[in-house]
Specification:
This protein has 183 residues and is α/β, with parallel strands linked by helices. The protein is 29% helix and 16% strand. The chain has helices at residues 19-31, 54-59, 74-81, 99-110, 138-141, 168-177; strands at residues 6-10, 85-92, 119-122, 132-135, 147-151, 163-165. It is globular.
Length: 183
C-alpha cells in the first residue's frame, strides 16, 4: 500500500527562478551600472535600483519572465523532493499580461518533469493549502496553512518570523533534519 505523500508548494520567482539576477542583469544592460545585492538589502525590488521605474518596466516587457535564470540547485532539489512529496509549483502569474504564458514556457523548459496538474497559477496564494510552502515573500507565507519556509532574498533579509533557507541545499537539509525526507 502506497503511503500518502505530504504536499509542498514551491514559488517560482525568487525560489525556482533567480529573478534578482534577472533584475540586476536587465538593469545593467539598460543603464550600464551593476547594482549589487548588498545595496538592495531590506527593500522591495523596485526601490532597490536608482531608477525606481525600471523593475515595473521589466516585468511588463515580453521575454522577461521567459528568460529568468534557474536558481542554483533548484532542478536537482525538486526532483529529490518529488520522491517524498507531492510537489506543486505555485506562482502568482496573473498581474502582468505575458507572465502566465512565459512562466508556463519556462517551466516546460526547465522543469519538464512537473505535470501540468501540479502547476498552480493564481493571483492570491492564500488559497493554497499545502503542508509546506517555500516562498520568498511574507505576504504569501503569513497566510500559509501548513509550514512556511522562507527562501532568502535581498528584499526579505529583515523579516525573521519564518524558518529561513538560503539555498536549495538548505531546503533539503532542513527537511532531512526534520525527518521529512529520507537522507
Amino acid at each position: 500500500m502506497d503511503k500518502i505523500k505530504k504536499t509542498i508548494g514551491i514559488d517560482m520567482d525568487g525560489v525556482l527562478a533567480d529573478i534578482e539576477q534577472q533584475f540586476m542583469d536587465w538593469y545593467e544592460n539598460e543603464f550600464g551600472v551593476r547594482v549589487p545585492r548588498e545595496e538592495r538589502l531590506g527593500v522591495l525590488e523596485p526601490e532597490g535600483f536608482p531608477d525606481k521605474t525600471a523593475i515595473k518596466r521589466y516585468v511588463y516587457t515580453p521575454g522577461f519572465f521567459r528568460t529568468i535564470p534557474v536558481m542554483e540547485g533548484a532542478v536537482a532539489a525538486v526532483i529529490r523532493l518529488m520522491e517524498d512529496y507531492e510537489v506543486y509549483i505555485v506562482s502568482a502569474a496573473m498581474e502582468f499580461p505575458q507572465c502566465l504564458f512565459e512562466k508556463h514556457q519556462w517551466l516546460a523548459e526547465h522543469f519538464p518533469f512537473i505535470s501540468w496538474t501540479n502547476i498552480i497559477f493564481c493571483g492570491d496564494k492564500s488559497i493554497i493549502d499545502t503542508d509546506y510552502l517555500i516562498d520568498d515573500h511574507c505576504k504569501n507565507l503569513d497566510f500559509c496553512k501548513g509550514k512556511a519556509i522562507m527562501f532568502d532574498a535581498s528584499h526579505n533579509v529583515n523579516q525573521h518570523h519564518h524558518v529561513r533557507v538560503k539555498s536549495w541545499n538548505e531546503v533539503l537539509t532542513l527537511l532531512e533534519k526534520e525527518n521529512l525526507i529520507d537522507a
